[in-house]
Amino acid sequence: MKVIFLGTGEAFDERYPNHSHLVLSENTALMLDCGDSAVRQLWKYTQDHSLVDALYITHRHSDHLFGIPALLGRMLEEERKKDLAIICSEQVKADIERLCQHAYFGIDSYGFKINFIMAEDGKEIQFNDLKLSFAKTGHTAYNLAIRIDDLPRGKAGGNKVVCYSGDGPFDEGTEKIYKNADILMHECYMFDQRIKGHVAAVDVFEMAKRQNVKCLALAHFKRAFNDETRKKVKEAIPSTGLKIILPNPLEEYTA
Prior knowledge:
CATH topology: Metallo-beta-lactamase, Chain A
């Protein structure tokens, strides 16, 4: 599987677009979160309005879903015909429907079918060649981290696993879905200071070791301390014994 790091920033950072990623398997393109600046990153990456098969939204905060009206509007403008799946919680589904109605009042059809698929804590979903698993984090809004197992038929080397935290601290249930991940994209607000609803880098390091994460991609640093936190993480990498990357927007990684 390939990951394109569309955005690696938090809600208000003018230098780094909103935390969002595009996961490409053999048969599926899955976009993870869609903030207002992240959607523009997708357009920079591809002009193919039919590339994305499914959109997964972790939670209801604006930097994770306010790009959806623009995404759907662009697809309408480009005359997309292919169905689009939106995977999210029941709460987020209602938010998306209200948001789209408010953003472009009067548009009641995009010219293609939108299929909502409900995600729940502890639930597993089969979507094309992917198995998707979800676990609740400790964010200030209800947030579901996701595990993506690539299950290609007849392909040597076994399946690959990509995980994404959205926002929020992990617990025993969240750690379980991160186990043996080939890459875990995890939010990291500060280096060692613990802010309510977010995670410190030092805690992610320890969790990644416990769960045998093969590559840890850290992003979503607090804007005011972005450069400082990145520097501290880079200095700490040799002592962690982990493979840790701090991806820039539109960089790619192959699991």
